[in-house]
Design goal:
There is one protein chain. By secondary structure, the protein is an alpha/beta fold. Helix content is 48%, strand content 18%. It has one domain: Vaccinia Virus protein VP39 (Rossmann fold, 3-Layer(aba) Sandwich). The chain has 15 helices and 10 strands. The strands form 2 sheets. A 7-stranded mixed sheet has the order 6-5-2-7-8-10-9, sandwiched between helices. A 3-stranded mixed sheet has the order 1-3-4. Helix 9 (191-199) links the parallel strand 7 and strand 8. Helix 1 (2-12) packs parallel to helix 14 (291-302). The chain binds S-adenosylmethionine (SAM). S-adenosylmethionine is lined by residues 44, 54, 85, 87-89, 93, 104-105, 129-132, 135, 158-159, 182, 184, 188.
């Protein structure tokens, strides 16, 4: 009963969208600047749109660990929950031309879990994969600084190579996973590996990049991108898909075939003509019916803004003059 009340509170929250965004950007900004995460300041350099994606992750990690608490983990007969970051980055993002620090995805998963009185259930294990040596070193140092080395497995490798061992480990430990699959582009994770991840129990949050339209255009003209698309979407993709919405639909229909009955997409806009979608894919498990209203409330908040608004907020937090967005 309490859990249901909590989510209704989120949904009915009278806070304005601007206040909500300010609070969430401030959380991940504060975290990014904190001594335990900032360290030597090495980070992934990204545009302000990344801030909205990470606000969504911060909110979802909190909701996820609130809903899948110890009681629900026990009711589902799991040994625990795990966070899997397939394209993990360095643990710190440097945003916009001023390189303002915003915490990266794994530190968010470690620090932004629900810490209520009645239940507190952070992830039991953190898995991450990062191909770049410098990002990997920085991420390892940050996980050490956060004191979670014993509970983490960070691989310096390509996702395609590292995933099979991680999947076996999650399965062997009987964890239920939340996977964050933060694609940088089309490449990096084949349909074959995605299917093997979908075969074991867990939920997913995926960044679907809309610029795949260009790849589709080149592939249709036989300009060499056919293999790239087939690897990610499967054989026959070029016959089935005419637009990037078709690509997304095909991707989602494959996820649905693997018993992820609830799919919600959130549109993330840069404000400068660039956009991507977050795909939330959720299994039916005991106690998780609160996810849907929670993610729908998140969708309403995030889609009210663009990366330009996020940059205004960061400017304010950094003490540079900028008006907060008004909705
Ligand atoms: C979008 S960034 C990740 C940011 C991170 N998830 C965050 O939100 O803080 C993608 C990261 O994946 C890494 N990467 C790209 N392709 C990869 C691959 N095939 N295997 C493993 N890592 C990869 C890049 O070096 C980059 O650091």
């Amino acid at each position: 009963m309490n859990l249901i009340k909590d989510v209704f509170q989120i949904t009915r929250d009278k806070k304005s969208d601007s206040q909500w965004l300010l609070e969430h950007v401030a959380n991940i900004h504060r975290l990014g600047k904190s001594p335990e995460i900032f360290l030597d300041g090495h980070g992934n350099i990204f545009n302000p749109i990344t801030t909205l994606k990470l606000c969504a992750l911060e909110y979802y990690v909190n909701l996820y660990t609130r809903v899948l608490n110890e009681e629900n983990v026990r009711l589902n007969h799991w040994n625990g929950i795990a966070f899997l970051d397939v394209f993990a980055g360095s643990g710190l993002n440097l945003i916009g031309k001023n390189h303002s620090p915003i915490a990266g995805s794994l530190p968010i998963a470690v620090k932004c879990h629900f810490q209520g009185k009645s239940c507190s259930h952070p992830f039991n294990h953190y898995y991450g994969i990062e191909k770049d040596q410098n990002h990997f070193n920085a991420l390892e140092a940050r996980m050490k600084s956060l004191g979670v080395t014993q509970n983490s497995t960070i691989k310096h490798d390509l996702a395609e190579n590292a995933l099979p061992e991680i999947i076996s480990d999650i399965e062997k430990n009987n964890y239920h996973y939340l996977a964050f699959i933060d694609f940088e582009g089309v490449k990096g994770l084949s349909k074959e590996k995605m299917d093997s991840l979908l075969k074991i129990k867990g939920d997913l949050m995926i960044t679907h990049i809309l610029s795949e339209r260009r790849t589709l255009g080149r592939a249709k003209k036989g300009m060499g991108d056919e293999m790239i698309l087939e690897k990610k979407y499967g054989e026959g993709v070029l016959e089935i898909c005419e637009t990037e919405d078709d690509l997304q639909e095909l991707y989602i229909s494959n996820i649905k075939e693997h018993d992820r009955e609830h799919i919600i997409t959130i549109n993330i806009e840069s404000g400068n003509g660039y956009a991507y979608r977050l795909i939330f894919a959720i299994r039916n498990t005991k106690g998780n019916s609160q996810f849907i209203p929670g993610i729908l409330a998140l969708k309403k908040r995030i889609e009210a803004f663009s990366g330009v608004d996020a940059q205004h907020i960061i400017n304010q937090l950094d003490g540079r003059m900028s008006r907060l967005p008004e909705i």
